[in-house]
Specification:
The chain is an alpha+beta fold. The chain folds into 2 domains: 163 residues, no CATH class; 97 residues, Cathepsin B, Chain A (Alpha-Beta Complex), CATH 3.90.70. Helices cover 23% and strands 24% of the residues. The strands form 3 sheets. It has a 6-stranded antiparallel β-sheet with strand order 7-12-8-9-10-11, with helices on both faces. Strands 1-5-6 form a 3-stranded antiparallel β-sheet. Strands 2-3-4 form a 3-stranded antiparallel β-sheet. A hairpin with a 2-residue loop joins strand 3 and strand 4. Helix 2 crosses helix 3. The chain starts with a helix and ends with a strand. The model has no long low-confidence stretch (mean pLDDT 96).
Amino acid sequence: STAETAGTAIHSIAQFYQPYSSVPTNAQYIPLTIAGQNFTDPAGNGYSNGYKNYSAQPLFVGEPQYADIRQGYVGDCYLLASLASVAMTDPNVIRQMATPLGDGTYAVRFYRNGQAVYLRVDGDLPTYYNTLAFAGTGAQGEIWAPVIEKAYAFFRYGMNSYASIEGGWMSTVYKEMTNLNALSKVISGTGADAAAFIAANLAAGHAVTLGSKSAAASPVIGSHAYMVKSVETVDGATYVTVYNPWGVDGVSYDSNRSDGVLRLPLSTFAANFTTAVVCAA
């Protein structure tokens, strides 16, 4: 429909991104033909020892959710926190990024220099002794996070490896996801100004992530990215609730350390984070 086209729910793909060869007769060329092909996978980073096909599992079950994000043994917290944050505030953005092609392969869209770039990957995901090595599945077996992560291993620097997605910043990912520049706010002083900035952007439907200090103290992990879930004031005290893309708290902090959610007093927030990053979508 016209509405679907205007809302970028329908994509016209003239050619897929070519990670290995732009020659159509080359065995590693990624064609438009939908025929259940088995494509060359990106190299690992030393923490995987095989690949397993997950195409029998659903890409999505209902709407993408932030809790579908579970980081593995690659330092791409910046990517996964960004995905988690957008899944919470605007899951349709995630659905527009990735789609099954019906043959066990998937199309994933990023943006570069203002232009949409479409990658095609198969359902082979890296494992460590038969368990997913990097991004995990959602609670109902959804594979959207590891599929997007796999596509990013090709797209980010064109190095075709999971090692190449180690370390980064959320503003870059937001731009690559939405083609819109991100906003940033330095966290200083008591943190009250930054907390108000975050609260206003969450209320406006914008995704927000945080970067922690290298010397962050428990319960915050140093040099790590988090998604912001909420900002609330209760009896005059402000709390910033965040989600760790590990999918677990990472420390013993509250009664449920396996949910990845930390409700931080304003003073803890201010002492441990450097910057808030806002997705403009």
